[in-house]
Amino acid sequence: MRVLVAFDKFKDSMSADVACERAAQALSELLPEWEIETAPLTDGGEGFVRILTTSLGGELVEAPVNDALGRETTAVYGRVDMTQVPPAALRILRLGQSSGTLAVIGMAEASGLEALRPEERDPWQATTYGTGQLIRHANESGATAVLLGLGGSASNDCGLGALEAMGVLAYAHDHQPVRNLAPAKWNRIASLGGLYNLKSKSVPLRLACDVANPLLGPNGATAVYGPQKGLKPVDFDRLERAMAKTADRLLGLAGIPETAFAARKTEPGAGAAGGIGFGLRTLLPNAAFVPGFETVAALLRLDDKTRRADIILTGEGKFDESSLHGKAPAKLIEQARGEAAVWVFAGRVALPAGRRPPRLSADRVVAITPENMPLDVALQRGPELLEAAVHRHFRA
User: Fold this and answer.
1) For residue 21, what are the domain limits?
2) Strands, DSSP E only, in the chain?
């Protein structure tokens, strides 16, 4: 029997790697004759860099950066020999070359929400500067292309912080520079510059993203994701207006005709990760969105792995309605061949009645957390709860 164990992370409990390891361990103890393959999943947030770089045989590189609040820290990105990138992934990334180096960068590494304590989360103060530092570091270290995973961000800054790290300059009305361009400082900005320097250092940049939100409006970055990042309801309108004004400034700096402003701001993905995709795509001529899961699946060769599997185990921290809208476990289920038996193990299951994927039976969607267990205890005991659940359901 061939088994594929492919979990996403269980947020605040265990990484995708740990989840795969514990589930595979439980299966191998029960059924040592089974052939078990693991493939940790990632949605562009936490784990994106390590999972992809390790799978492709690349190396992890440390770089000094600033976190979302401007504090000095160290972040990691991956360097992968382009010859190790599967042809299917090169096609999705629209990279013709089969030589050179692909840098794999994740927003969560330098500008991540999870790195901040709950009381520190504030989109007025958070920027993507550290992510820009990583892109610049990769470019200056000889990368011939960059893949950026848009996920897990703490910011809502149109990518202006990242652009600042890469060469964009801001000036006040008195022509003095404005630095550390968090949204709280945007009211001091009179003009932006430095674009020529930015373009001269650009390599192909691919923005991996499955989020289709526009930049502004009721489905935009501020409305949908701002509250998760600490935005208070009373501040929504003010930040939304600031985002709109900054977006227009970036479009103007890039020389985009005003008649095209609305289309660029409503482009699917413009609102992902606080608008960083919008900012980078506006000012970097070689930047383009690519589908997140499709890219990850091609890099991990998931098609081959699902094709070989008789049984697939997948899951994440919470399997609910949002899981069915582009998240990795649900996408994996869609890829499974018809005869394969698919199981989902999740910290919690909260699917509306009748909203399971068509090929997923109710008895194979398993909540690993006992009903009366407090959340903090469940998060702490996640690995053992997953292992116990797999034991329970596969015991002969």
Assistant:
1) 2-40+310-394
2) 2-7, 35-38, 59-66, 72-81, 101-106, 145-149, 169-171, 177-178, 191-193, 205-209, 287-291, 311-315, 318-320, 341-346, 348-350, 365-367
